[in-house]
Design goal:
mainly beta, 3 strands, 49 residues
């Protein structure tokens, strides 16, 4: 499933954070972020570019 807006996701407070990864383009500024959340039946991956 792909979501375009956060309000399309059921209560995000029901999810547990599994991992939060930041990839750096240079030594000081983050380039990309990957947030992995999970509830009882779904995994949710949020990408930030």
């Amino acid at each position: 499933m792909k979501f375009q807006k956060f309000n399309e996701i059921e209560r995000i407070s029901d999810y547990t954070k599994i991992s939060d990864t930041t990839i750096y383009g240079n030594n000081s500024e983050p380039k990309h972020g990957i947030l992995h959340l999970r509830d009882k039946k779904n995994n949710l991956i949020i990408l930030k570019a």
